[in-house]
């Protein structure tokens, strides 16, 4: 079945020499050049064969994903394209993203509250922070599906529960810079939950 006099080479041969040396009726298979020759070619030529195997739609998706990643890096103050994030940073972001809803506190001046009062008095501002992954219900999953299918288009709806105050602390009273007395209600959270 095999011709003992046939010689095989790693380098591609010309079509005329392959026809002359081939005595069988099998078509000649395309031959790849050895890897050692490819090391010296440019990066573009190395990946051109890979890119040729993708459809136009897949290449468009790849380019749009890279452009989106680049614009996110530029908007966040980065100066480099983060194609390969540093090791461990993804894990840290994932942990930070999935902290459960909890009550936190911060000591701030009344002026920093942004309510229009000028005062140097400080208050303990309690707020709710965290995610509500465990509180996702069938409603949230269905709403998310309807939004992704564009069945709900222009309405502003949230497809997941939010970490919000369930109850508020007592009213807060203070003197402003002009010695006027004020009382503000529902300023600080007392209890947090997923709503």
UniProtKB/TrEMBL annotation:
Organism ancestry: Eukaryota, Metazoa, Chordata, Craniata, Vertebrata
Keyword check for Secreted: yes
A UniProt-annotated Pfam family: TGF_beta
Gene3D superfamilies: Cystine-knot cytokines
Composition skew (Low complexity), residue ranges: 9-31
Family listed: Belongs to the TGF-beta family. GDNF subfamily.
Localization (cell): Secreted
Keyword list, A-Z: Disulfide bond, Growth factor, Secreted, Signal
A molecular-function term among this protein's GO annotations: glial cell-derived neurotrophic factor receptor binding
Chain segments annotated as coiled-coil in the UniProt record: none
Role according to the record: Growth factor that supports the survival of sympathetic neurons in culture. May regulate the development and maintenance of the CNS. Involved in the development of the neural crest. Might control the size of non-neuronal cell population such as haemopoietic cells. Acts by binding to its coreceptor, GFRA2, leading to autophosphorylation and activation of the RET receptor. Heparan sulfate-binding is required for signaling.
Name by which UniProt lists this protein: Neurturin
CC per GO annotation: extracellular region
Domain TGF-beta family profile: residue ranges: 90-195
Subunit structure: Homodimer; disulfide-linked. Interacts with GFRA2 coreceptor and RET: forms a 2:2:2 ternary complex composed of NRTN ligand, GFRA2 and RET receptor. Also forms a 4:4:4 tetrameric complex composed of 4 copies of NRTN ligand, GFRA2 and RET receptor, which prevents endocytosis of RET.
GO biological-process terms attached to the record: glial cell-derived neurotrophic factor receptor signaling pathway; nervous system development
PROSITE patterns: TGF_BETA_2 (PS51362)
Region (Disordered): 1-38
Keyword Transit peptide: no
